[in-house]
Specification:
Oligomer: single chain
Number of helices: 14
Radius of gyration: 21 Å
CATH superfamily of the largest domain: Glycerate kinase, domain 2
Helix content: 25-40%
Number of domains: 2
Strand content: 15-25%
Shape: elongated
Strand order of the largest sheet: 3-4-5-6-9-10
Distance between the termini: 17 Å
Length: 372
């Protein structure tokens, strides 16, 4: 008797409509409509940004919660994921310092802090984790990770010896950075900075210039934040790591992790595929279905679908998405045989978002007809 067909569903979220877990569920339902005996294996993925903790939880990590300082200084509830043996934690900075935590219309480009991310890291240390994946993205902050480091014991002082206030705007007054009080457990902890952003800390491609405006920064704010981050980098490590890949991620929190915590940068999707056990799962699959909300030019620069396709080890890969702007040659160049977009079924984007689940099931049925 022939073995049933196994399909590995390793897709990211469709931002604004479906979580990665929901994408996998709808794809599996659509496949079963056409091939009832198919064995869909859900492995929701993320690239370090929003949804990273959810992907780890779906893979069997345990959910841990902590009350931490939100980006505006008020307490917020935040979750992280802990492996069954307690040795590995997945921490998502957006849980503590994310743009989504701000009230509607209340942006704080100069004062939003990453202090809560440091508290979340400390909670993971308290739980016994000595391998920590720090997923960054979706931040409300541009403080270079100074708040995060302060929560872990660093001190940032002005010329009068007073602690700086919160946020990137305060870095203009920084006179001394003292890392001697950092939590001693950090020296025995391996921290991986997981991000799909390789921007430097400062300059025209830096954290303030590229991402500051979406956090509410005016042109004057961007200039002030960029100057403050440059000053911060000079005092923290002489600017040695300011141009390192990932330094500009999450408003410069990437730099704070690299220079202050000794973190190692890796593309977020590569890290998460390792954590989630992708290699073992793909070895048993006949087909891989990946995807995200929009397959476009940004996808080609380290996003989840490309990471999945590259790690698929010769197993055929197709993609699902809400919107598709890449041609067949671009897809083939990264190992994706074909992409199926919701807009093929429903050209109206608002309706696509509103009815993403049922539309995705119809796309999955097409895939089943074409490949299974």
């Amino acid at each position: 008797m022939a073995e049933p067909t196994r399909v590995l569903i390793a897709a990211d979220k469709f931002k604004g409509s479906l979580t990665a877990v929901e994408v996998a569920r709808h794809v599996a339902a659509g496949l079963r409509r056409v091939v009832p005996g198919v064995v869909p294996v859900a492995l929701p993925v993320a690239d370090g940004g929003d949804g990273t903790v959810a992907a780890a939880l779906a893979a069997g990590f345990g959910r841990r919660e902590a009350t931490v300082t939100g980006p505006l200084g008020r307490p917020v509830g935040a979750a992280y994921a802990l492996s069954g043996d307690g040795g590995t934690a997945v921490v998502e900075m957006a849980e503590a310092s994310g743009l989504r935590l701000l009230p509607p219309g209340r942006l704080a480009p100069l004062t939003a802090t990453t202090y809560g991310t440091g508290e979340l890291l400390r909670a993971a240390l308290d739980a016994g984790a000595r391998d920590i994946v720090l997923g960054v993205g979706g931040s409300a902050t541009t403080d270079g990770g100074a708040g995060m480091l302060a929560a872990l014991g660093a001190r940032f002082l002005d010329a009068a010896g007073r602690p700086l206030g919160p946020g990137g705007g305060a870095l203009a007054a920084l006179d001394r950075a003292d890392l001697s009080g950092l939590d001693p457990r950090l020296s025995g902890t391996r921290i991986v900075l997981a991000s799909d952003v390789d921007n430097p800390l400062t300059g025209p491609r830096g954290a303030a210039a590229v991402y500051g405006p979406q956090k509410g920064a005016s042109a004057a704010d961007v200039a002030a934040l960029d100057a403050g981050l440059a000053r911060y980098a000079r005092l923290l490590d002489g600017g040695r790591l300011a141009d390192a890949p990932g330094a500009g991620a999450a408003g410069g929190l990437g730099y704070g992790a690299l220079a202050g915590l000794g973190a190692a940068f890796r593309p977020g999707i590569e890290v998460m595929l390792d954590v989630l056990g992708f290699r073992a799962a793909v070895a048993e699959a006949d087909l891989v279905i990946t995807g995200e909300g929009s397959l476009d030019e940004q996808t080609l620069h380290g996003k989840a679908p490309v990471g999945v396709a590259r790690a698929a080890s010769g197993t055929p890969v197709v993609a699902v998405c809400g919107r598709l702007t890449l041609d067949a040659a671009a897809l083939a160049g990264v190992g994706i045989e074909r992409a199926y977009a919701l807009t093929e079924l429903e050209p109206d984007l608002e309706r696509c978002v509103a009815h993403a689940g049922p539309l995705l099931e119809r796309l999955a049925a097409r895939i089943a007809h074409d490949y299974l």
